[in-house]
Amino acid sequence: KNEVEQSPQNLTAQEGEFITINCSYSVGISALHWLQQHPGGGIVSLFMLSSGKKKHGRLIATINIQEKHSSLHITASHPRDSAVYICAVRLNQAGTALIFGKGTTLSVSS
Amino acid sequence: KAGVTQTPRYLIKTRGQQVTLSCSPISGHRSVSWYQQTPGQGLQFLFEYFSETQRNKGNFPGRFSGRQFSNSRSEMNVSTLELGDSALYLCASSLFANTEAFFGQGTRLTVV
User: Fold this and answer.
1) B50, exposed or middle or buried, with CB in 10 Å at 0-12, 13-18, 19+?
2) Do A95 and B55 touch (CB under 8 A)?
3) pLDDT digits 0-9 by tens, A65-74
4) CB distance A42–B106 less than 8 Å?
């Protein structure tokens, strides 16, 4: 069993829809990251969370430490949001090593 | 402010050769981590360096090695390349350990 599980694996949406991507983990963590990867490979860090909720534009990320669960929401989705979204956790120990989920491939059509 | 720079962007090597990849972190960042991404295994942690010291190493064979210089630039080396080493190699820098990580564009290595 992977230490970081994401769902769904693939997601198709129409422009304007509200999107939710979920991430569950089974280990003690010091922080959780949401990353975005477009075709071509470059990864952009969207959020780093250790508790509560963060918002940036149309993106919202929440984390529940007790339940070991995080969600990434995209409000009013747009075709440019099409990408792979990756959840990664930093273990509750020294260092910056990340453990990654398999990613969620989002495709938003107009 | 310049981002994380990885060179080269693309590389084709033959089995048995060795390769060196370079990562220049954001100015002022002292922590550099390396990751391998393949379609089958996804993203996997290779190494983490902080102030020229390797602090953590992932579960990869000894053919994979790395180092960090006094200016925080980092290199990783893969010796005796195998076909399975074909992957996107990404590095990420952060100001200190456990702060937000910023990723480079990656080096796509193809082993033929």
Assistant:
1) buried
2) yes
3) 999 999 999 9
4) yes
